[in-house]
Amino acid sequence: MRPLFAQGRSAENAGLFLDGLLGDERRKTGWMRAEAAGDPGPWRQQELLGRDRWDADELRDLVRDYVIEHLGDADAVLVVDETGFLKQGKASCGVARQYTGSAGKITNCQIGVFASYVSRHGHGFIDRALYLPKSWTDDPTRLKATHVPGTVGFATKPQLAATMIARAIATAVPFRWVAGDTVYGIGDIERDLRRAGKGYVLGVGASHVFRSWGNRRAIAGTAADIAETLEASAWLRLSAGLGTKGPRLHDWCYLELADLEAEGFTEQSDSLWTRGLLIRRNIADGDLAYFTTWCPTGTPIEKLVSVEGHRWAIEDSFETAKNEFGLDHNETRSWHGWHRHVSLVMLAFAMMAVIRHQANKTTPKKTSRSASSAGRSKRSGA
Fold first, then answer.
1. 49: part of which helix (H) or strand (E)?
2. Is 279 exposed, middle or buried (0-12, 13-18, 19+ CB in 10 A)?
3. Are 203 and 178 in contact (CB under 8 A)?
4. Are 274 and 304 in contact (CB under 8 A)?
5. What pTM value is reported for the model?
6. Which alpha helices (DSSP H) does 171-300 contain, by range?
7. What is the pLDDT along the chain (382 residues), one digit of tens a residue?
8. Which residues, including other chains, have CB under 8 Å from residue 356's CB and lie 6 or more apart?
9. 56 near 339, Cβ under 8 Å?
10. Residues 6+ apart with CB under 8 A from 56
């Protein structure tokens, strides 16, 4: 991090801040971090987040490059999602009464949109943005009080996610898929991903309309209406990956809607791609979830289910980042304070993800020929 800071004192404070995030304290507040650093008060911590001059976006880029260096994989999935930061009062940048899945209701909170890089080696955050409701972007006084840059205007959550995806593509982040819930299955994200030659599994609502064309069997109607017409044989029970209690099993159905030449969307490929509808059914209560898909023709349903299952990683990341690294313990009210705090937490999370990856690497055991022969004899005897 040292090149990010003009003064050595700021770099030292950043290191102490990071140590505090990685420490054993359950609450990562300014006073707790200061106590862990041996400071009489939180003033150095507050200075780092508020008054020092350094660019949080440069730290974001450093974290992204670090994650890709150690966890990068060509078949990775970029997962976009949001999380809430519960707040009291009205002064914190972006705070408003709005729905957050973190609380499962409308409450006073900030909303952060994140992009997580998920590969076979592990997962870590590589981008973030604070969502500003129109009640903020339409109020210049509030924007000025929280030091929001003049170039920042209103952007929907899908637009924020689309910007992150575009930034990942522009910086040559290796990934093949994008996954997101129903918030992100609308807008321009589909178009942008098709142009970039990226596959996707994006959630949509039950009222989203799907139609088939070309040589595919006739399908037309809302996702919910289509699901009602499916026969029992159309469903497959598949795992979307391992959870804390074992395989995350659901019933799945995949309907291919049309095969399209990729050259109509991007210059990167002239292969055939398929647009489709993926439906997930909960085994316990029959609850349905719907996803619009885009993938190379011939992609099996198991792969699409696996891609959708990668969304679990970002939910796990939010929980871990909040419980272990103080993601939601930010006490600053400014735009810069939020992005600085969150970027430092992203770095702490990435460090632990890389350490886990290194620790889990298997090293072949060196054995002599005699030992190997003995081992085979024992196995044969057993």
1. helix 43-49
2. buried
3. no
4. no
5. 0.88
6. 189-196, 223-228
7. 899 998 888 898 889 889 888 888 777 676 576 676 677 666 677 788 887 789 999 999 999 999 999 999 999 999 999 999 999 889 999 999 999 988 889 999 999 999 999 999 999 999 999 999 999 999 999 999 999 999 999 999 999 999 999 999 999 999 999 999 999 987 789 999 999 999 999 999 999 999 998 877 789 999 999 999 999 999 999 999 887 778 889 999 999 999 887 655 555 556 899 999 999 999 999 999 999 999 999 999 999 999 999 999 999 999 999 999 999 988 889 999 999 999 999 999 999 999 999 998 766 555 554 444 444 333 333 2
8. 122
9. yes
10. 336, 339, 340, 342, 343
Query: Could you tell me if residue 35 is inside a domain?
Result: no
Range of the domain at 157: 55-360
| Paired sense of beta strands 177-180 and 77-86, if any | parallel
* Residue 376 maps to a domain: no
* Residue 217 falls inside a structural domain: yes
HEC sequence for 285-304: CCCEEEEEEEEECCCCHHHH
Q: Domain total for the chain?
A: 1
Measured distance CA(115)–CA(284) in Å, rounded: 30
- Count of CB atoms situated within 10 Å of the CB of 49: 24
Cβ(349)–Cβ(321) below 8 Å: yes
